[in-house]
Amino acid sequence: MEKLLFLIIFLLIAGNSFSVCPDGKSYEVYLTFDDGPHPVLTPRILDVLKEEEVKATFFVMGYRFKNGKTKNPKPFEILDRMKKEGHLIGSHTQYHIKHNNIKDDDEITKKPSDPNDFLGPFTKRQVFENILKPYSNVDLQRYLTPLVRLPYGAGKIKSTNPTVQVKNDWVMNVLATSKLGHVFWNIDVEDWNVQKEKYLLESLLKQICQKKGGVVLLHDTQSNTAENLKSWIQKIKSEGHKIIPLSEGRKDTGEALAPEICKPEPSTLDSLYNEVNKILIKTGN
Ligand SMILES: [Zn+2]
Asked: What is the pTM of this model?
């Protein structure tokens, strides 16, 4: 009997230690979703988050709201729901452009820009407007927190090439001057990458342990994510980790969280826009 009891206790302990990180710890995890809102997939993701009682952060694309609330109500209805259900909404900028690909030569800036070009190069003025535009959309701005995630992390990711780094610094300076905080990620499972689909959950759990928790980059435009999110969340929870909102995040996650989270009133955004605009005119473009 004693032996049996010992065996049961041993199995319980062994089972437990098997399910958490090798260091025996569990961590805090923040879920973030980029590129949406998607008319079908985002509501499905919101359903899962509601069922699992998890709060997340959505970085939305400004261009999805360009027709205004009355002409194009659906994406705004999704934002209403996000807000009502306690999620944070940040900006993924207007178009999904590579913000740090800034033109060197002022002569090139005289060429008309192609609206379908997302990789650039762009003028400083174009980059600036792309960052600020969601905040100057009167229908959209009241939903947005000052949290921004730059597409591809371009501008935020440091470069060893000084010419590139000058451009990165310039992009981050636009955010800082506009009192916008950047939220980077430290856990990336490439949920857009079909090749890696099979190993996604394994990679997610491994990274949570290796990186001691942090910000997970996901996309609410990916059907794989909408389909499997429930099982991913359940697995994260069963490993003992906590999924918490970014707003309740620990300060000691350093790079993983926005260094400062400012909250300018929507009414001040126009004047802010003008203020930054003036500074940029002084610097050239
Ligand atoms: Zn993106």
From this structure: 0.83
